[in-house]
Amino acid sequence: ILVTAGPTQEPIDPVRYLTNHSSGKMGYAIAKVCSMRGAEVTLVSGKTAIKPPLFVDVVPVTTAREMYEAVTGRSDRQDIVIKAAAVADYRPKTISEQKVKKTDEELSIEMERTDDILKYLGEHKRANQFLCGFSMETEHMLENSRKKLKKKNLDMIVANNLKKQGAGFETDTNIVTMITQNEVFELELMSKEEVAFHLLDKILELRK
Ligand code: CTP
To answer: What is the pLDDT of residues 22-54, one digit of tens each?
Structure first.
C-alpha cells in the first residue's frame, strides 16, 4: 500500500515558500494502521513534525514535483494507493536565486499549475489497483467530491468539511464521508486512527 501525507512546500526564494495547514496526521494514521494489519507500506510524506511509524518505508519529499516523482516511480507496484497529502495546486513560476528584497511597490507572484498526481494515477491505473483520494471542502462537499471521484477515475474519495468542529487539519479527530460511485458512507466524529481502521475495512471489502 502506498500512502501520501502532509503538505508540500513550494519555494519562492531561498528564504520563503508557499504551503498549507496539513499536519500529516491523517496520512500517518493510515500508514500506521495499514502496517499494523500486515501490509507492506510506503509512506511518501511532505514535511511534518510526526515521528515516522515503525516498519513503514518513509520517502521524504518537499515539493509537489518531488511527490509526483516519488509516487509515480512506485505506483506500478502498489495494490492500493491512498492519497491523503495536501498537494499544492500551484507553484511560483520562477524561483528567485537570491532573496527577494522589498520595495515600496506591491508584489505579485506569478504561479503555474503543478502536476495532478492523483489524476495521473487514475489515468494509469493498473488492473485491480484501488485508488483512494481525499477531498477537503468548505462548501458543497458531496457534489464537489463526486466530481473529483469521476474526473480522477478513483475508486473512493474520503471527504471532509473543514468548517465542522473536530474535522480537518491539525486535530487528532476527523469527521469523514467515504464516497464511491454508487454509495456514500458517513462516519461519526472519531480519532484519525479509528478513521484509518474504517477506511481500510471499506477498501478491503470493496476490493473483494
Ligand atoms: N492531489 C494530487 N496532486 C495535486 C493536487 C491534489 O494528487 N497536484 C490529490 C490530493 O492528494 C487529494 C486530492 O487530489 O487526494 C484532492 O483533490 P483536488 O481536486 O486537487 O482537491 P483540491 O486541491 O482541494 O481541489 P480544489 O482546489 O479544486 O478544491
So the answer is: 999 999 999 999 999 999 999 999 999 999 999
Q: Can you spell out the DSSP letters for the chain?
A: -EEEESB--EESSSS-EE-----SHHHHHHHHHHHHTT---EEEE-S-SSPPPTT-EEEE--SHHHHHHHHHTTGGG-SEEEE--B--SEEESS--SSPPPP-SS-----EEEPP-HHHHHHHTPPTT-EEEEEEEESS-HHHHHHHHHHHTT-SEEEEEETTSTT-SSS-SEE--EEE-SS-EEE--SEEHHHHHHHHHHHHHHHH-
Residues 40, 125: contact at Cβ < 8 Å?
no
In angstroms, rounded to a whole number, what is the distance separating the alpha carbons of residues 56 and 28?
A: 10
Pocket test for ligand 1, best of 117, 141, 161, 169 (most atoms within 8 A of CB): 117
118 Cβ closer than 6 Å to some ligand 1 atom: yes
Does 153 participate in catalysis according to the annotation?
Answer: no
pLDDT tens-digit series, residues 121-142: 999 999 999 999 999 999 999 9
Here the cell at position 98 is 537570491
